[in-house]
Amino acid sequence: MRLIITLHARERMDYHGITEEQIKTAIQRGAKVPQTDGFLVMYTYIRVAYKVKYDKCIIKTVMMDR
């Protein structure tokens, strides 16, 4: 799986200290909820909004539950 991370998502990753590996794990193992344009996946304390295009996952934003 190839990740394409938007600037907004990269900033959120840096702010929360979330790595690309954690995002991949969340996408593979987390609970997925369909959204209008993609999915929201929840895994442990991480939430990732993304969409799939061809063989790429475009990461729109990353959030952390507190």
Short key terms for the protein model shown above:
66 residues; alpha+beta; YaeB-like fold; 5-stranded mixed beta sheet; 2 helices; 5 strands; 30% helix; 48% strand; globular
Summarize the entry for a quick read:
The chain is an alpha+beta fold and 66 residues long. It has helices at residues 7-16, 20-29; strands at residues 2-5, 31-35, 38-43, 46-53, 56-64.
Description:
By secondary structure, this protein is α+β, with helices and mostly antiparallel strands. It has a single domain (2-64), classed as YaeB-like fold. It has two helices and five strands; from the N terminus they run E-H-H-E-E-E-E. It has helices spanning 7-16, 20-29; strands at residues 2-5, 31-35, 38-43, 46-53, 56-64. It has a five-stranded mixed β-sheet. The longest helix is centred in the first third of the chain and has 10 residues, at 7-16. It is globular and about 30 Å long.
Order of helices and strands: EHHEEEE
State the end-to-end distance: 28 Å
Q: How many individual domains? A: 1
User: Helicity level, as a percent range?
Assistant: 25-40%
Total beta strand runs = 5
CATH class: Alpha Beta
Number of helices: 2
Strand order of the largest sheet: 1-5-4-3-2
What is the name of the CATH topology? YaeB-like fold
What is the CATH homology-level superfamily?
RelE-like
> Globular, elongated, flat, extended or rod-shaped: what is the shape?
globular
Low-confidence stretches: none
Radius of gyration: 11 Å
- What CATH architecture would you give? 2-Layer Sandwich
Quote the beta fraction: over 45%
Q: Which structural class do you get from the secondary structure elements?
A: alpha+beta
